[in-house]
Design goal:
The complex is a heterodimer of chains A (286) and B (306).
Chain A lengths: L1 H18 L1 H23 L31 H37 L1 H15 L3 H11 L4 H27 L3 H8 L4 H9 L4 H24 L11 H10 L6 H28 L7
Helix pairs in contact in A: 1-11, 2-3, 2-11, 3-4, 3-6, 3-9, 3-10, 3-11, 5-6, 6-9, 7-8, 9-10, 9-11, 10-11
Chain B lengths: L1 H28 L13 H10 L6 H13 L14 H36 L4 H15 L2 H15 L11 H31 L2 H8 L4 H13 L1 H24 L5 H11 L2 H29 L1 H6 L1
Helix pairs in contact in B: 1-12, 4-5, 4-7, 4-10, 4-12, 5-7, 6-7, 6-10, 7-9, 7-10, 8-9, 10-11, 10-12, 11-12
The chains are: A mainly alpha (286), B mainly alpha (306).
Chain lengths: 286, 306
């Protein structure tokens, strides 16, 4: 019974999403950006760090689709390679925040009582902290470690996810199917992850879609401040930084990475809105 | 309301202590030290410097000493610029960041709230669609893209404003516009959503039935409830303005506190890093309290609960 119900819910949501033109356009745009980022470095005859000092600041033409930078590196190769990094950071850091936030929120909501009060108190306190300062501090002090980047960003972004998950858990924990599972003598862990979690998927997906752009923004801020990925590697944030410094001589250096980055953020935000309407028709559209 | 203030102050003390402790040990366990500069300092001078600043004592003693000084409001001297107290450095740099932040907030509110109100009043017309599409674009155009674009358009091409620096009011325009427009976009959306909900309330209908003009309804009756989401957003916005100012200060070469902080972290200027972090934390705690008080004043229900 429950499986047919959930699959029809999924199909309903998909149909509603299909009807939303902006969301579908965003989905295609995202697929295109992801595909270009994945395949671009393979198709391009230049590598992202290959310098050619005879061809510096070349404006876009047929040999260099997006032009070249001050070291004669091909901007198409650098933008697509940077896209891989930016998207990877976006997805992985979101995953980190998801794991922390969902576990924390479920535990807090499920256990309830004093533990719940204390755990949410902690979230409130953490909310009021200048977290970005800690992230910057961490990145400056301990070097620009890639793993640290994921963890630091993920650790900042889990708070809202925890709140949302907790609220949903509290709504559901007295539902009949949870009671039934408890009556069957299942362990708390099994109830949490087998029975409760699948029913939280909707809000989790919605919020995760909205977390990805937030995470990518944070990564690019760090890269922009010179604390993210280091040259010769590139991410959209670091490319935008280089482009902004040289925009008088070579505006395309700012234009192409900036365009990719903004379009991706745009599409993710619209997709998130569309998913919210599709998965949770009750919520308001405004 | 008094209860709220007291409980927040009581909560602030342990919070600040945890932050101080975390930051203290984090900076100390990080590789590098304040006197490992590019130009080599002779070993004996380095040792003297370290003993002068008490860095040769056991770490835990240093920690206790720092806390003791902190309780007396003493943030200590900067390690990098020993002739300066940390509090003096913050006092020099913070007004710059504050000016930037306040101007940006002003721009954000003055652009965002009217745009959102008009959009809500004329829902599904072009005065709704135009500002809302612009605001979606604004949200997706990060400050570090918008800033260079504004420099390019208004400074390089049109020569209207200086591109960099922080010498006079003409320099304030581009940075605060960059930071302000980003938040204006958010505020416009929040205002629209809040207003749409409030305009459907019974008391608005009553006011209309009693013959109140739509201007009066907007400013007197609906604004109070409709702007609540905006007020709630102000808390995170303050934190965001601080982050944003890091980026803005780096784009426009502004000598604000954000730039000082990043430089201090690079220099391993322990006291300066700690002082700045604690300063920022206290600032955010204070601003959050103000936002909550404002919220309670606007929303009678929240006042009851608290």
């Amino acid at each position: 019974m429950s499986s047919t119900h959930s699959s029809s819910l999924g199909r309903d949501a998909w149909l509603r999403l299909r009807a939303n033109k902006m969301a579908m356009a965003s989905l295609f745009l995202l697929a295109a950006v992801a595909l270009i980022s994945l395949l671009g470095p393979l198709l391009c005859s230049y590598s992202y760090d290959q310098q050619n000092l005879d061809r510096v600041f070349q404006s876009p033409d047929t040999t260099h689709l997006f032009g070249t930078d001050n070291l004669g590196r091909d901007l198409f190769a650098r933008t697509t390679y940077g896209g891989r990094i930016s998207l990877a950071v976006g997805l992985l850091a979101t995953l980190v925040s998801l794991v922390i936030g969902v576990t924390y929120g479920m535990l807090s909501g499920y256990c309830g009582g004093r533990l719940d009060a204390w755990m949410m108190r902690l979230v409130d306190v953490l909310y009021s902290l200048p977290f970005i300062i800690f992230v910057i501090l961490l990145m400056v002090l301990f070097g620009r470690n890639f793993l640290l980047l994921f963890l630091a960003i993920g650790a900042v972004e889990w708070l809202t996810m925890a709140r949302i998950t907790r609220a949903q858990t509290i709504n559901l924990k007295n539902a009949e199917f949870i009671e039934a599972a408890r009556a069957l003598g299942y362990s708390h862990l099994r109830i949490l992850f087998h029975h409760l979690l699948p029913n939280l998927i909707g809000p989790i997906i919605i919020y995760a879609t909205l977390t990805v752009p937030a995470v990518m923004l944070l990564e690019s801020v760090l890269s922009f401040l010179g604390l993210g990925v280091q040259a010769p590697m590139s991410s959209w944030g670091s490319l935008i930084k280089e482009g902004a410094e040289k925009m008088d001589a070579a505006p395309w250096l700012l234009f192409f990475p900036g365009m990719f980055f903004c379009l991706t953020l745009f599409a993710l935000n619209f997709l998130g809105d569309g998913l919210r309407d599709a998965l949770d028709p009750k919520s308001s559209k405004d | 309301m008094r209860k709220l203030i007291i409980s927040r102050v009581l909560q602030a003390v342990p919070t600040l202590w945890v932050i101080a402790t975390l930051t203290f040990f984090m900076t100390r366990y990080a590789p590098g030290g304040p006197f490992d500069s590019e130009r080599a300092i002779p070993e004996e001078i380095k040792i003297k410097l370290q003993s002068h600043f008490g860095l040769d004592r056991p770490l835990f003693d240093q920690y206790l000493l720092y806390l003791k000084n902190l309780l007396q409001g003493d943030l200590g001297p900067s390690f990098k610029y020993p002739e300066w107290e940390v509090s003096e450095l913050i006092a020099t740099a913070f007004p710059v960041s504050l000016t930037l932040g306040l101007l940006s907030l002003l721009i954000a509110l003055m652009v965002g709230i009217p745009a959102g109100m008009i959009a809500a009043l004329r829902k599904n017309s072009w005065v709704d669609y135009l500002p809302m599409s612009l605001s979606m674009a604004g949200i997706c155009l990060p400050t570090f893209v918008l800033g260079p674009l504004l420099i390019y358009a208004l400074s390089t091409q049109l020569g209207m404003f200086p591109p960099l620096g922080w010498y006079g009011p003409a320099d304030w325009v581009l940075p605060s516009l960059t930071l302000g427009l980003f938040y204006a976009a958010y505020i416009a959306r929040l205002t629209r959503a809040g207003m749409l909900e409030t305009l459907q309330q019974d008391y608005v209908r009553t006011a209309r039935a009693k013959g109140a003009t739509s201007w009066r309804i907007l400013t007197k009756h609906a604004a109070r409830g409709g702007l609540l989401p905006v007020v709630t957003f102000l808390g995170p916005a303050f934190a965001g303005l601080i982050t944003g100012s890091f980026v803005i200060e780096s784009i426009f070469f502004i000598p604000g506190l954000g730039k000082f902080f990043v430089t201090a972290a690079f220099n391993r200027d322990y006291t300066m890093v700690l002082g700045t972090v604690l300063f920022y934390a206290s600032l955010i705690i204070l601003l959050n309290l103000l936002v909550d008080l404002l919220q309670a004043w606007l929303d009678p229900k929240a006042r009851q609960e608290k």
